[in-house]
Amino acid sequence: MKDKTPLYNRLLEHEKLDRSSFHTPGHKCAGFFPEHLLRLDYTELPDTDALYEASGVILESEKLLSELFATKRSLISAGGCSLAIQAMMKTARDRGKKILCVRNAHRSAINAMALLGLEPLWLTPQGSNGYTGRADPNEVEKLLKANSDISACYITSPSYYGELSDIAAIAEVCHQYNTILLVDNAHGSHLAFMKENLHPIALGADMSACSLHKTMPVLTGGAALNIGNETLCQNAKSAMALFGSTSPSYLIMSSVDLCIDYMLSGSGKSDYLRCEEKVAELKAMANEKGIIQPEGICDPLRLTLNTACAGILGEEKQIAYFESHEIDCEFCDGINAVLIFTPFNTDRDFERVRNAIENMFVSNRNFKHFFVPYQPKKILTLRQALLSPSETSALSEATGKIAADTACPCPPGVPIVMPGELIDEPAIKLLAEYGIEKVTTVTK
Question: What pLDDT, in 10s, does the model give residues 19-32?
Answer without folding.
Answer: 999 999 999 999 99
